[in-house]
Write a structure and sequence with these properties.
It contains twelve helices and 17 strands. The chain has helices at 4-9, 11-20, 27-63, 67-103, 141-145, 152-159, 168-187, 201-206, 231-235, 293-310, 357-362, 387-397; strands spanning 123-128, 150-151, 165-166, 191-192, 198-199, 225-226, 242-244, 250-259, 278-288, 315-319, 331-339, 344-353, 365-367, 375-376, 378-386, 405-406, 420-421.
Amino acid sequence: MHDIRTIREDPAAFDAGLARRRLPPRSAELMALDDARRAAVAAAQGAQTRRNELSKAVGQAKAARDEARAAELMAEVADLKASLPALEAAEGEAASALHDALAAVPNTLLPSVPDGAGEDDNVEVKRWGTPPVFDFPPREHDAVAAPLGMDFETGVRLGGARFTLLRGPVARLSRALGQFMLSHVAAAGFEEVVPPLLVRDEVAFGTGQLPKFADDLFRTTDGRWLISTAEMPLTNMVRERVLAEEELPFRVAALTPCFRSEAGAAGRDTRGLIRQHQFEKVEMVSVVPPDASVQENERMTRVAEGVLEALDLPYRRMALCSGDMGASMASTFDLEVWLPGQERYREISSCSNAGDYQARRMNARYRPTGEKGARFVHTLNGSGLAVGRALVAVIENNQRADGSVAVPAPLRPYMGGLEALEPR
């Protein structure tokens, strides 16, 4: 969320930031809404001040036994008292209009973000690993994993489209992946958390899912939201708080189910596990001082890359361009893993720096040592990794001609030493 004072200080710079996202200028509109808010505040405060002055004057008139003047003043006080509710309501409406307009404007991009219109303009930063070479035509994960316990038919019968049931060996491999990833990020200094899977409106607003992405979420009958990512509860752990500088960096992580309606994904990735309504993900969240967020984003991305490297999964790191950036983020690195069956790289992690955008929505601040005032923190989040997509990558990169799948060495301790999944 943006600070209207910053926009007023340099409206041209604000509009230039929007132009990088291929968006029209908004500074004039926002400043006009702020002018209306200021006028409403002034009107309400002016009426209250005048009422107080008149009340004092009534007392003075009565003390002077000027009953006619006192009655005249009391009538004006009554008129002002009657008008105050409307003035205060107008003040509230003007403040809400400005708040809602500011909340709908996406984050300002960091200068390091490459310019571009869409995902085709994202910039490859690095590659790691060599895609495996097979002496047979590699298959996609849905074909390989069906005999291993990946049951699409039953999943659809139970939950409908975009649901899958895992059983037997492949279910065990999925569990092993989640546990391994959680252990990996915990070793990197992220405290393990088991958060609520249902959150309130203000939590979803704080991280930017509301109001813009309400259609991508599932809502319960009592008005709460199923989390689409553990970023929502983890980041909001610092909402409405003023942290001591010594409490930073604040790093937490969770392995949770996630729920997404995939409202805008009709016709995309309808086969397999790539795009599901329900999936598991290990999410990392960092809260740091403003001058540490760029470095922290690099650190977080390296933690996620470490998972892929430990599993010997070839990947590439992409810097998202201005036209492909999430609305709440100031910069993002995507990690894309190689899938032999599809013969291309697919996203498996996003590690993003939100700057103070989410902190302003949550009112999350810290007090620098030796200072009286508090400043907004910077928040970051990254997946380390999406379990379902990691399962896809492990299956496709470790498939064998006989239909079995080799279990990567780091996962074997989580699977009782099992070295391969055999078709049933």
